[in-house]
Amino acid sequence: MIETTPAEERPERPVSHSETWQSCLVMQGHINGYGRLFGGVLMSWIDQVAGIVARRHAGCEATTAAVDSLVFHAPALLNDIVVLRGRVTHVGQTSMEVRVDSFREEADGTRHLINRAYLVMVAIDSSGKSRSVPGLRLETEQERMEWETAARRDRLRRERRAEGY
Ligand SMILES: CC(C)(COP(=O)(O)OP(=O)(O)OC[C@H]1O[C@@H](n2cnc3c(N)ncnc32)[C@H](O)[C@@H]1OP(=O)(O)O)[C@@H](O)C(=O)NCCC(=O)NCCS
Q1: Could you state, in order of their start, the residue ranges of all structural domains in the chain?
Q2: Candidates 10, 97, 119, 130: which one to mutate for ligand 1, based on the most atoms within 8 Å of Cβ?
Q3: Topology (CATH) of 12-162
Q4: Which of 27, 36, 122, 137 has a beta carbon 3.0–4.6 Å from 12's, enabling a disulfide?
Q5: In whole angstroms, what is the distance from residue 25 CA to residue 30 CA?
């Protein structure tokens, strides 16, 4: 049995409550044979940020259920600073969609997008069962637009799962 709470009884948290920034330095152990940041290392950083965002929003442990859109736009190189920004874009009953943007930061502070990923995180109780998450309070026009597009992705995911993909 999933522990669920009716929508009207669920507390709400704003997107800003769980927004998370993380900076990482690309070091020798992070690069591949071409001298570029290895994709798997970046994916690990993305998953960590999404996990922190989800825990902050849910107020409990969360696990990664799916990563269904992750695009590498540009490389990062040895000694680059990589900045990751994660935020909740949509919530269901127990799931949260977290968008993580990763940037390569230049010495003057200019940031270039190198990766965008959407992860579905699920709040879990101490026995690993999914549990209700707070609602998401949308405070800006951009957050409302993100919610709309995230809701479409959520519908598509559910359709694909129902079809057995
Ligand atoms: C994620 C997990 C807890 C979901 O458990 P479950 O019994 O399938 O739970 P439910 O069917 O009740 O689904 C719970 C929520 O997850 C969502 N969900 C489950 N599987 C999903 C998937 N493959 N893609 C997208 N969302 C998914 C459901 O839509 C539901 O969302 P909602 O409550 O907002 O409507 C379970 O599959 C699990 O533990 N997976 C392994 C996670 C893990 O170990 N991650 C680390 C990677 S090493």
Answers
A1: 12-162
A2: 130
A3: Thiol Ester Dehydrase; Chain A (3.10.129)
A4: 137
A5: 9
